[in-house]
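User: I'm curious whether this sequence folds into something compact or stays loose and floppy. Could you predict its structure so I can see for myself?
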Amino acid sequence: MAVLTDISLLLTNIFGSVILLIFYPILSILNYKKKKTNFPSPKAVFNWNIERLEELKNECLDLGVKVEIESIDVTEKEKIQDWLIQFDNKYKIDVLIANAGTMETMLPKELNFSEKILTVANTNVIGTLNTVLPMIPIFESRGSGQIVLMSSITPFCDYVMAGYTASKGFIKSFGLTLRNDLARRGVGVSVLAPGFVYTPLVDSLGYNNIPALQAVTTQDASKLIVDGINRNDAIISFPPLVYYFCNFVSTIPPNLKNVINFLAHSLLKYPDYSKPLSLATDLPEKDKYHLSNPIQNSSTSQKKHA
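Assistant: Here's the prediction. I'll summarize afterward.
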C-alpha cells in the first residue's frame, strides 16, 4: 500500500506540474495584476545584537536617517505590544519585519532535548506572533501595510533540527495563509525562506565551508529581501539553486523520503546537536557553552531589536 501511495503521489506531482506549465502564462498575468500594491518603499528593520544595532544606528544617523533602537524579549507579550503601538503612534509603521529567532545549535548545550525544543518554539513561534498580531488590526484599519515573516528553507526538507524546522514550518504556513486573509484588505504578507547566510545562526552549524550550500553574505541577502518586499512576493527565498532543490524535495512522498534521508545520513555524518552537553562529546570546542543559568543567559537569541 505504501508503494502504491508513493507512486500515486509522484504521478499526481507530474500531472499537476504539466497542468501548471500549460496555464502558467495566464496565471502569471493574473498574479502580476493582483500583486500591485500601494505600499510605500519599506523601511529597513534589523533584528540583531544591541552592540551591532548601536553601530548601525550611528551609520544611519550619518546618512541623515532617523533611527530608534530598543531591546525587548519577544516572548514578553505586553512589552512588545506596548512598544510597537507607541512606536506606530509616533512614526506610523509601514513594514513590519518579524525576524527574531533561534535554533537548537545556538542554545546552551546543558539543555536537554525537551528544553531546547520548548525554547525554540517559544521564541520562534510565540515571539513572532507577539510581534505580528498587535499590528494586524492597525494595518487593516489603514488598508495598507506589509508584514514580513522570517521562516527558513528547512521546512521544505524536514531533515534536521525538529524544533527549528517545525517552528519555521509554522511561520511559513501562518504567513502564506495570513497573506490570503489580508490581501482583500490591502495588507501584504511576505514569507522569507532563506538558505544559508553568513550569520551567527548559520555559523553555529559549522557548515560554512561546504560549497554546495551556496551560502550568501548578509549584504547580498539584504538586497534580495528588500527587492522581494518591494514586489510583495509571497515567498522570498535564496540562493536560487538551493530553493529549487529543496522545493523539489518537498514533493517527494514521505515514505520514499525516508530512504533518501537514510542515504543522506550515511554521507553527511553531522553531530547530534539534540544531545545535552554530557553526551555531545563530538561537538566543536567553539560550540561548547558553559553558562551558570543557561535559559536566562540564552536571551540574546530571543531578543527583539528594532
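Summary: The mean pLDDT is 79. Residues 237 and 243 are 6 Å apart (CA to CA).
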